[in-house]
Design a protein that fits this description.
The chain folds into three domains: 2-97, Methane Monooxygenase Hydroxylase, Chain G, domain 1; 106-210 and 299-350, Alpha-Beta Plaits, CATH 3.30.70; 216-285, Double Stranded RNA Binding Domain (2-Layer Sandwich). Helix content is 45%, strand content 21%. It has eight helices and eleven strands. The chain has helices at residues 2-19, 28-65, 70-97, 119-140, 169-173, 260-286, 326-330, 335-350, and strands at residues 109-115, 143-151, 157-165, 178-184, 195-205, 219-224, 240-245, 250-254, 303-308, 313-316, 321-323. An eight-stranded mixed β-sheet has the order 2-3-1-5-4-9-10-11. It has a three-stranded antiparallel β-sheet with strand order 6-7-8, with helices on one face. It starts with a helix and ends with a helix.
């Protein structure tokens, strides 16, 4: 570990020196990248310096123990025990700090919710999840933008695509990808039988132009009239947009805006993000030697959570966490669940260091 920490200190000093050069601002992009790396390394650099100093002191004290100066040996004996305890504690902290950070974690995110098995009840549950994530975003101080919204006849949601802007939005929400299951008595069920239905959630890191470049020749754009349950989602002009990415066959639709231009911009944002996700999954699959964390694989076919209304409980099946606070969670109180998933991911990553 000591060699790794010395490399970090060396890199931090190198960046500091480079940033002090007045000519650095001539290359804005390079300056921004260096500034971010400098900021990311600041905390671990300070902790590394402290660890290196204590480690050096320990080595010097242990050399004294090998000597013949009895009085000096007695003086350093207690100090050695204290240094060893300090270093052990610092190692646990540094191990976590040394875990490579996923560069996507700092990105904005695009959240997709779709009703699954269960008909109208599934659509109503999808609307519950939609509200839950909007409330969580509001609690975090993030900005949200509806990119596409398809209503069902009874007020549920067939599909919702939401852009979420905020520091670390993807890193916070990435654990939500998967199948969410609900167990409750539908309002339309006269006999009061318990039904099980589901909705799927996909959380994608928002791609920017430098991540994915879309050529005009690779896409087909169709326009059509927006449709839905009524209100603002229906209009008499062909403002809705459907974009087909010819090389991959991916299709994105957007009809939430009355402006065709705005719908096109939103659809391209979603397409770019989905293409980035495809690219990311391909790269991940190539890293066969790297074991994926149980909580961040993003497998959308995996059942990750059950919301049981009669018992007022929510169970996350990946980490066997059950909380009896269904109403609070559906109101956007996801902090406890997400923090537990983060801890489990760190434990998995620590075992690989």
């Amino acid at each position: 570990m000591i060699d790794k920490l010395k490399e970090i200190v060396q890199r931090y000093n190198q960046i500091t020196e480079e940033l002090s050069n007045p000519n650095i601002v001539s290359d804005i992009e390079h300056f921004k990248n260096l500034s971010k790396e400098h900021s990311d390394l600041t905390e671990i650099n300070l902790k590394s310096l402290e660890y290196i100093q204590k480690h050096k002191q320990l080595v010097e004290d242990e050399e004294i123990l090998k000597g013949n100066d009895t009085e000096l040996k007695e003086l350093v004996q207690d100090e050695i025990e204290g240094l060893k305890a300090d270093l052990t504690g610092m190692e646990e902290v540094l191990k976590i700090m040394l875990i490579p950070r996923n560069p996507d974690d700092d990105k904005n995110t695009i959240l997709e919710i779709r009703s699954g098995t269960g008909g109208e009840e599934a659509a109503l549950f999808a609307s519950n999840l939609y509200r839950m994530y909007l409330r969580y975003a509001e609690r975090q101080g993030w900005m949200t933008e509806i990119l596409n919204l398809s209503d069902s006849e009874t007020g549920g949601i067939k599909e919702a695509v939401v852009g979420i802007k905020g520091k670390g939005a993807y890193g916070e929400l990435k654990f939500e990808s998967g199948v969410h299951r609900v167990q409750r008595v539908p309002a339309t069920e006269s006999s009061g039988r318990l039904h099980t239905s589901a909705a799927t959630v996909a959380v994608l890191p928002e791609a920017v132009d430098v991540d994915i470049i879309i050529n005009d020749t690779d896409i087909k754009i169709d326009t059509y009239r927006a449709s839905g349950a009524g209100g603002q989602h229906v209009n008499k002009t062909e403002s809705a947009i459907r974009i087909t990415h010819i090389p991959t066959g991916l299709v994105v639709t957007c009809q939430d805006e009355s402006s065709q231009h705005k719908n096109k911009d939103k659809a391209l944002k979603v397409l770019r993000t989905r293409l980035y996700e495809v690219k990311k999954q391909e790269e991940d699959s190539k890293r066969a030697s790297v074991r994926k964390s149980m909580v961040s694989t993003g497998d959308r076919s995996a059942k990750i959570r059950t919301y049981n209304f009669p018992q007022g409980r929510v169970t996350d099946h990946r980490i066997n966490l059950t909380l009896y606070k269904l109403d609070e969670i559906l109101d956007g109180d996801l902090v406890e669940t997400i923090e537990a998933l983060k801890i489990e991911e760190r434990k998995s990553q620590l075992s690989e260091i």
